[in-house]
Amino acid sequence: MEQFDTNFLESLEAYYGPEYASWGKEKHLMLALMRKLWATVLEPSVQKANTMNPNANETVQFLFSKIREWLHNCSIRERLNLRNDGNKDNEKAAQLRSAGNKMVHPKEKRYIEAMKLYNECIAFSAKGSEERSLAYGNRSFICLKMERFEDCLQNIRLARESNYPKHLNEKLNQREKEAKQALSKARNQNVTKVNPEVVETLQLSYPAHENAPQLANCLALGRSDQYGRHVVTNRKLKVGDVVMIEKPFVTVTMDTCQYVRCDFCQAERLFTLIPCEGCTVAMYCSEECISKAYGKYHRYECGVLRDMWTVLDRSGVIALRMIAIAIATFDNDLEKLKDHLDALDESKVDGFTMDWKKATPQDVFNTAHVLCTNQERRNIKELALRTFFTVVMHNDLLECTELGPVCEANPTASKLLLDLILRYLQIAECNHKLLICNSDNGPKSDNARFAIGCYPLINMLNHSCAPNVSRLTLPDGRCAIFVIHPVAKGGQLFESYNVDHWLTDREERQSTLSFMYCFRCTCEACILNYPSMESLQGINSELRVEYFIELYKCAATICTLDKRELLDMMVEMRSFLNNTPQSYAEPEVILKRMKFECVVVALYSQNTKSVEYWKYCEP
Questions:
Q1: Which among 201, 196, 194 is positioned nearest to 604, based on CA atoms?
Q2: Which is deepest, 40, 195, 305, 365, by most CB within 10 Å?
Q3: Contact 325, 298 (CB under 8 A)
Q4: DSSP state of 207
Q5: Taking a C-beta distance cutoff of 8 angstroms, is the pair 468, 493 a contact?
Q6: How many CB atoms lie within 10 A of CB 536?
Q7: Pairing between β-strand 479-483 and β-strand 242-246 as defined by DSSP bridges
Q8: pLDDT of residue 538
């Protein structure tokens, strides 16, 4: 029992890194409850049965039954403080606005931090309340100070629409006058802020599949006992080739960016966000995005989204949204969804051969529904943990959303919902991708990792600790796959599942991959034990210092280069990587490959995977 707990916690910490260290007391209480449940109820029952197969339906139903009974008796909702998030809290809003005011003080002038607090205040405040109107007014003040004059005017309009106190109107009037004068002066002088040169949209390097415009036509989906589903190429691929550009099936704004980005389109709108009136979490860039989000998924998650971020990890929140999308896709009819799934032959769902030009929303849903869960590879303890999370989410959905009355009247619908939660929790855990980008506030700001997405076709790529392709988040949320190491004709494309040999030693990689993805990695880096950055320190510290100083110089230089200079750098590094017959793990090759990725990022996206490298590269 103790060994199980230790391994579990170590694996969580290895996978989530600093994010795990910041987990709140509710998440840790969830783990403590699970340990108690396992020790007192599940482990004795499992030992007594001694024949349970994690992939058997009977085992899953047994776990559901035991866990639901135990959680009902321990009053988990009260212990975890789970509640319907539909009630606004003006007192909390006032506290947040007061905290924001302290950030605006002339001795502080921490305007970005203040803006986030004002946005959170707006999310917590009731519609038409004084607190909300004052927060909009305060946002207009910051916008004026930061010379964001159009944003200033928009916040003044929002403040007035929210019943801004009449005795303070003169403040708004004066700000409005100053903002309009500044805009008028800029127009008269034809003064506009110079934006960075707009780069052309990234495109596939080869003709697209006839029916799948997001794929280069040289790619195909293979299947084998060793690799399962995997992606192969029927032509030689060179470093720099772009072979996939896919939009996500689902995205979720990270909890650190809830008051920075639109929850529907993920656009960064720190200065002008407006709130969902049904919860205190989601904010949007426009009424249009509010309407689209509600119709596509938010109606089913609105009351529980804060709970799920509080007690589950990011995989749980993605699973919640996938379930909401699934129900909405079938006209908000659980019976219709069940009939579709009962008739679905999962073995015939292939996104690489599907006609995406004619695909219905149900067809697109199928490509996400059949993503791997790895349930058959889990032991009983691991399955019990995920079943525990499933029951917590199921109870919360029944308690706090319109699905409660539906499932109470139809036990079949309740059972379907329970099964879908378990499936999508495991799908999300195995298949989610981080969307990473620079923001106006710098690449190391809280919102560098701004969202999580699930890409059905890209998720067919297998892992290697020595990957030959890399992911790039585009500004519109799509994900591009580009080659970083030559791939032979007939070769398989491999990406890294957030662990690679340069940043992590083999033992830690194996532990993380086993826990999160249920396989033991046999890639070339693991078989040949390619060196990690840390291992070079003991072998040749002078060489390590020399290379990492060069990496830092490269990162600093890239920020100052124009498009032409970046293109020249990319051509030089592509030539080196395509024509140098050196080992994948040769330090000079690693250096060039990392530089190449930085240049691609700088050219085609505000995304920066380089951030993940620089923080580990202290000389």
A1: 201
A2: 305
A3: no
A4: P
A5: yes
A6: 18
A7: antiparallel
A8: 44
Q: What's the rounded Cα separation, in Å, for the pair 455 and 479? A: 8
Q: How far apart are CA 235 and CA 491, in angstroms?
A: 9
Q: In 3-state terms, what secondary structure has residue 23?
A: coil
Helix axes 149-161, 130-145, angle to 10 degrees: 170
Q: Tell me the two tokens of residue 417.
A: 């919902």
Place of tokens 């908000």: 332
Please give the residue that has the higher pLDDT: either 163 or 194: 163
* Token digits of residue 334: 């659980």
Token match 């494309």: residue?
A: 493
Model pLDDT, residue 475: 81
Rounded to whole angstroms, how far apart are CA atoms 19 and 91? 29
From the number of C-beta atoms within 10 Å of its C-beta (0-12, 13-18, 19+), residue 585 rates as: middle
Of the candidates 346, 616, 360, 339, the residue with the CA atom closest to the CA atom of residue 504 = 616
Judge contact between 215 and 481, C-beta under 8 A. Answer: no
Q: Are 259 and 249 in contact (CB under 8 A)?
A: no
Query: What is the secondary structure of 389-421 as a DSSP string?
Result: HHHHHHHHHHHHSTHHHHHHH-HHHHHHHHHHH
550, 556 Cβ separation under 8 angstroms: no
pLDDT in tens, 527-580: 999 988 766 544 444 545 555 555 555 666 666 777 888 888 889 999 999 998
The whole-model pTM stands at 0.88
Query: How far is C-alpha 99 from the geometric centre of its chain's CA atoms?
Result: 28
| Strand runs labelled E in 234-384 | 242-246, 250-253, 274-275, 283-284
pLDDT tier at 196 (50, 70, 90 boundaries)?
A: very low
SS3 call for 163? coil
Q: Specify the pairing of strand 432-436 against strand 469-473.
A: unpaired
Among left, alpha and beta (phi > 0; psi -120 to 50; other), residue 540 is beta
Q: Closest by alpha carbon to 389, among 288, 292, 312?
A: 312
Is 461:435 a contact under the CB 8 Å cutoff? no
- The β-bridge partners of 219 are 233
CA distance 42 to 66: 7
- Picking from 431, 479, 433, the residue whose alpha carbon sits closest to that of residue 607 is 479
Question: Using CA atoms, how far apart are residues 12 and 315, in angstroms rounded to an integer?
Answer: 13
The CA distances from residue 411 to 304, 323, 392, 398, in Å, are 21, 17, 18, 12
Q: Would strands 469-473 and 283-284 be described as parallel, antiparallel, or unpaired?
A: unpaired
Find out whether 516 and 504 touch, Cβ atoms under 8 Å.
no
Q: Which are the contacts of 181, defined by CB distance < 8 A and separation ≥ 6?
A: none
**H or E segment to which residue 451 belongs:** strand 449-454
Return the closest-CA partner of residue 566 out of 61, 313, 268, 196.
Answer: 196
What phi, psi does 117 have (nearest 5°)?
A: -70, -40
Identity of the residue numbered 486: P
Residues 6+ apart with CB under 8 A from 119: 135, 139, 259, 260, 270, 273, 283
Specify the residue for token string 């290697």: 464
